[in-house]
Amino acid sequence: MPDIINLLPDAIANQIAAGEVVQRPASVVKELLENSVDAGATNIQLIINEAGKVLIQVIDNGLGMSETDARMCFERHATSKISTSEDLFKIKTMGFRGEALASIAAVARVELKSKTAQAELATFIHIEASEIKKQEPVSANQGTSIAVKNLFYNVPARRNFLKSNPVEMRHILDEFHRVALSNPAISFTLTQNDKEIYQLPAGKLSQRIVSLFGKNYQKQLITCQEETHWLKVQGYIGTPEFCKKTRGEQFFFINNRFIKSSYLNHAVQGAYEGMIQEGQFPFYALFIEMDPVHIDINVHPTKTEVKFDDERSVYGIIKAAVKQALGTHNVTPSLDFGSDVNFKNLAIDNSHFNAPSKSEGNYGSFKSLDKQGKSTRWDEMYEQAIDESRPSPAEIRREELAGLETPQMIFQSEANVQQSVELEEEESSAKPILMHEKLVLKQVKTGVMVVDVILAHERILYEKYLETLHKKSGSSQRSLFPVTFEMNPADFSLVMELKEEISALGFEFEEFGKNTVAINGVPADIKNINEKELFEGLLEQFKFNKSELSLSTRENMARSIAKRSASKTKISNDSIELRTLIDRLFACHQPNYTPNGTPTFIILGLEKIAEFFNQ
User: Fold this and answer.
1) How far is the first Cα of the chain from the last one, in angstroms, to the nearest whole number?
2) Sheet harboring 257-259: ordered strands across?
3) What is the dihedral of CA 23, 28, 29, 32, to 10 degrees?
4) CB of 288 within 8 A of CB of 231?
5) Alpha-carbon torsion 322, 324, 329, 335, what sign?
6) What is d(CA 117, CA 121) in angstroms, rounded to the nearest whole number?
7) Could you give the 3-state DSSP secondary structure of residue 106?
């Protein structure tokens, strides 16, 4: 039998590896920016054309590369970050695998210019599909410039699967935010299609947050800091009133590396328990510093997933640190350990809580001093509170899976039709009554019908706007004066992507400078609502639905505007207006439920009411 196993050529092997490392233009941006950070750059420029499909260029003033290194960096598993297997357990650089540039060069046309401080001339290399086409000395400043052109030009199937430019640009902005946040001491510039999006000077973390996300973040930042001999937590969290209904502005960094961890996110959410509504998410940018030997970042090619050798302890310290920050800033009342029966023997002076911790050789021995100079154990003070509320990683995952269950889907059935018909046949002599400005009560044949005003309006508006979007027939009422407001670049990009659908609802708006829109009109049937509040609410609800549900753009838009408009609904105790509400509700195709499956009304039967009095 002839031999059938062959060694793949380097070009094909690189293309296969690129499938994991280079998933979309944002992957290239991430790898190139991290390389610039590792090179010690103090100024980094990112240039994007056509959402990275045509050009991604990163220019830095870092160490630069010699002629040999410039050519070697495109080989697989060529890196300056590690040299032995032991180095994998003490990684402090962003990159270490030596796969990124080789993978990028396999699926794009790449031009590299690099110069060290000692060299007289820079090295220029042009490479296509892993094949070096040109190499020559050129004149350039110290540092490195890498231009990635025509990404996936030789893998058309991968290029066809890329999303629209606004979608890909949002992913690029996400990666840019993460790198810029974790390195506030480095100045960054982002240019898109020859238009400057960001110019971030070097400064403090708080200044970087405000520069990235907007001036309104100045009012909501709370300092969060805690230090033990095992790890250090520092950064900022947001006040509860600024929480949003969408994820996205939650950042964890381990030794300046951005990570995704639903387990640690649960710790922060738990610290806000009782202060925010379910389904809301606070802002946070928390930096965790710890010895690299306690973490494993070599889990996934994107290096955003990590494993801790003591995950529960990290969970407990983060949750305690966030709770302390909220209490210190009077967001929540401080715990009085002296009067609480659960902590009656653990009274301490909170003014020394942030005293530097002394190591005793293992976690669980953090110490601080009380007024008498007696040592108190940090972990003992929090032991009961943390252990009772700290779940295992498996429990967190089960909870998240339960939260991701598909919302109840309601289909037309005989039961629904029969109930609607029964209500329609009811004599109209009984007048509906408004209670607490939220509920409408009306006598029906079988008992009493209770209608939720807001949920009923949500169903009515949903079907109305769904038809409006289908026919593109939305009418608008002009504002007396245009309302302008600035958004972060990611939201602005989303608005431009959805411009046709938003306009079809009845909004009249236009671009008004950098990341700014001017609203000239809103849907005609929406009364007594702030234009900016409505527009921002629509955008937030759309992003929330998109993250939680699989919906078409039209369906998502109809649900979003209906929910945000209905939440501001006010109704008077006028019988005609109440009757009109009920009539409009039962004129809907599906009056029984809101779009997400919540009942719009209930019927208390006479037998059920009688049971309350015959117990």
Assistant:
1) 86
2) 221-227, 231-238, 284-290, 250-254, 257-259
3) 150
4) yes
5) positive
6) 10
7) helix
- The pLDDT value given to residue 301: 56
Q: Let me know the angle formed at the C-alpha of 223 by 219 and 227, rounded to the nearest 5 degrees.
A: 175
What's the rounded Cα separation, in Å, for the pair 291 and 230? 8
User: Which pLDDT value is given to residue 329?
Assistant: 77
> Could you give phi then psi for residue 53, rounded to 5 degrees?
-75, -30
What sign does the CA torsion over 113, 114, 117, 119 have? negative
Per-residue buried b or exposed e for 174-204, using 16+ beta carbons within 10 Å of the residue's own CB: ebbbbbbbbbbebbbbbbbeeeebbebeeee
Q: Which two tokens stand for residue 279?
A: 């389904």
Give the type of residue at 225: Q
Phi-psi group of 587: left, alpha or beta (phi > 0 → left; psi -120 to 50 → alpha; rest → beta): alpha
In one-letter notation, the amino acid at residue 581 is L
CB atoms within 10 A of CB 268: 22
Output the 3-class SS for 173-202.
HHHHHHHHHHCCCCEEEEEECCEEEEEECC
Residue recorded with tokens 């006598």: 443
Range 156-172 average pLDDT: 85
Least confident of 238-242, 274-278, 362-366, 475-479: 362-366
Between 547 and 130, residue with greater pLDDT: 130
Distance CA 299, CA 287 (A): 20
Please give the structure tokens belonging to residue 162. Answer: 């890329």
Residue 317: both structure tokens together: 């310290």
Report whether 594 contacts 455 (CB < 8 A). yes
Task: Give pLDDT tens digits for 294-308.
Answer: 777 655 555 567 777
What backbone torsions phi and psi does residue 587 show, to the nearest 5 degrees?
-85, -10
Contact 132, 126 (CB under 8 A): yes
d(CA 25, CA 44): 18
More confident residue, 280 or 573: 280
**30-34, 426-430, 589-593, 610-614: range with lowest mean pLDDT:** 426-430
Pairing outcome for strands 433-435 and 439-444: antiparallel
Both tokens of 110, joined, read 């790449």
C-alpha to C-alpha distance for 201 and 207, rounded to whole angstroms = 9
Q: Is 312 exposed, middle or buried (0-12, 13-18, 19+ CB in 10 A)?
A: middle
Spatial distance between the Cα atoms of 605 and 591, rounded to a whole number of angstroms: 19
DSSP letter assigned to residue 343: G
Per the listing, tokens 């969408």 go with 246
- Listed in sequence order, the residues at least 6 apart from 504 whose beta carbon sits closer than 8 Å to its beta carbon are 468, 469, 472, 473, 474
Write down the pLDDT at residue 45.
95
CB 424 within 8 A of CB 579: no
- Per-residue pLDDT tens over the stretch 52-107: 999 999 999 999 999 988 888 888 777 766 555 555 555 555 555 567 888 888 88
Alpha-carbon span 514 to 493, nearest angstrom? 11
Helices (H), 438-574: 453-471, 489-497, 499-505, 531-548, 553-566
CA angle at residue 530 from 525 to 531, to 5 degrees? 75
Distance CA 545, CA 559 (A): 8
pTM, rounded to two decimals: 0.67
Q: Give 531's pLDDT tier (boundaries 50, 70, 90).
A: confident
Q: What's the pLDDT band for 149 if we cut at 50, 70, 90?
A: very high
Contact status, residue 264 vs residue 397, Cβ threshold 8 Å: no
Distant-in-sequence, close-in-space partners of 607: CB < 8 Å, separation ≥ 6 = none
